[in-house]
Amino acid sequence: MTSLLTNTSAMTALQTLTQTNKKLAVTQNRISTGYRVATASDNAAYWSIATTMRSDNKALSTVQDALGLGAAQVDVAYTAMEKAKDLLDEIKAKLIAAKQPGVDKAKIQSEIAQFQEQLKGVATSASFSGSNWLSIDSSAAGWNGIQKVVASFSRTIGGGISIGTIDVQLARTALFDANPAVGGLLEAGKALANDGGLQNTATPVAGNGAGTPASVTLFNNVADVTLDGDDALAFDFVFNGEARTVRITKATVDAALGTSDGVIADGADMAKVVEVALRNAGFDLTNDVTVSGTGTTVTITHVTDSTDATLAVVNSKTSDNGNFFDVTDIDITNATQAELDAFIAGIEAMAAKVTTAASDLGAVKSRIDLQKSFVSSLMDAIDRGIGQLVDADMNAESTRLQALQVQQQLGIQALSIANANSQNILALFR
C-alpha cells in the first residue's frame, strides 16, 4: 500500500542516515582527540581506570623530583664525608711523624690544629636545602634522627595509597652532634651504664719477693655486661712501668666466648675476654701475667714475684661509640709516646667509622639512582597501559571514517529516492 501520510521507506532511510551520522561524529571525535575513551560516557569503567592511573603518574612524577633532591643531599654528604676521611688520614700521618724522637711537636700540633678546624668546617658546610647530615643537634626540639627520602608511590588492591621511603639514620652519618649527651663519629661517646666495675689502681702494685706476686683487681662487679654496636672499654695496663692500651669491644667478647651477642655473664667469662684483649695488646699470658675470674671479679697477676715486678691499671674508660676523645681534643704538644699511640689508635677507629658511613651513603645513592630509573620506567609502562585502554587506533579510525562517509552519502541518496516516491503519486492526479 502506498500512502501519502506514512512514507515507510523515507523513515527507514532517515533512521539509517541518523545512525550513520552518529557513528561518523564518534569517529571524527576520536580522530580529533586521539582518544577512543575521552569521557566517562564513552566507557565509564575504562575512563575511571585511566583517570586514576593518570593521577598516580602525576604522583610518581613528584616522587622522581623527591628522589632527585634526595640524591643531591646524599651527594653533598658523601663528598664531605670523603674529605673528612682524607683529613683524618692527614692527622694520623702527623701523629706518626710526632713519634720520631727529637721532632718539634708544637709545630706538628699547629698543623693538626688546622686540620681540626677544617674538619669542623667540612661538617658544617655539608648542607643542602637547609638539611645537614654531618653536623647535627639531636637535642633540638622536634628532632628526628631518621631522614626520609620519598622513593615510591603505590596503590593497594583496596584503593589505599602507600608511600615508600629510603631512610638514612643520622646517628650513622653525623660527624659532630651538638647534644652533649651524644657523640658524633668524631667525638667521644657516652660512658656505658654497666662497665662491670672497671677500675684503676691508685698506685703501682709490686710483688714482695716472698711468694706473693703483684696482683690487681680489674673488674669487681661483672654481671651481665653487654657490649653491642660500637661499645668499648679501654684501660692502660702498666707492666713493669711500661703502659700499653688495652681495648675490649663486642668483637673481643664474641671472639673470646664464641658468641655473637656481646654478653659477658660473670667474672669467669670476663677473664676469658681480658685474656684475649691483653694478648691483642701484645702481652704474654704465659711469661708476663695470668688472668683469673671468680664470681663477679677479675684479677690480673704478675708471673714474676719480685719487688720490681709491678702492675697498674690507669685511664680506665668506656664509650658507647668506641671513641674516647674528640678529634678536636688532640693536642700533642707535650704528649708522651703512650698518648701518641692512643691518639693514633683513636684516629684509626674514627677513620674506620667514617669509611663505613661513606659506604652507607654510597649504597643509599646507588639505591636512589636505581629507584629513579625504575620510577621512570614505571611511568612509561603506566602510560602504555592507559593508552591500551583509551587511545584510538588511528589506522582503524581513518579507515572507518572513509567507510562512514560513503555510508552517509548512500544514506542521503536513499532518503532522496524514498522522498521521490511520493512525488510519483502526484502523476496519478494529472
Which regions contain 5 or more consecutive residues with pLDDT less than 50? Answer: none
**Biggest sheet strand line-up:** 7-15-10-11
Count of runs of 4 or more consecutive helical residues: 7
Distance between the termini: 20 Å
Mean pLDDT: 90
Question: How much helicity do the residues have?
Answer: 40-55%
Number of domains: 3
Number of strands: 15
Structural class: alpha+beta
CATH topology of the largest domain: f41 fragment of flagellin, N-terminal domain
CATH superfamily of the largest domain: f41 fragment of flagellin, N-terminal domain
Percent strand equals 15-25%
Radius of gyration of CA atoms, rounded to a whole number: 41 Å
Describe the sheet with the most strands: 4 strands, antiparallel
Short précis:
The protein is α+β, with helices and mostly antiparallel strands and 430 residues long.
How do the helices and strands line up, and which of them pair or pack?
Blueprint: H1 8-33, H2 44-98, H3 105-125, E1 127-128, E2 131-132, E3 135-136, E4 146-155, E5 161-169, E6 176-177, E7 205-206, E8 215-219, E9 225-226, E10 232-239, E11 242-249, H4 250-257, E12 263-264, H5 267-280, E13 289-294, E14 297-302, E15 310-319, H6 337-390, H7 394-426
Parallel strand pairs: 3-6
Antiparallel strand pairs: 1-2, 4-5, 7-15, 8-14, 9-12, 10-11, 10-15, 13-14
Helix pairs in contact: 1-7, 2-3, 2-6, 4-5
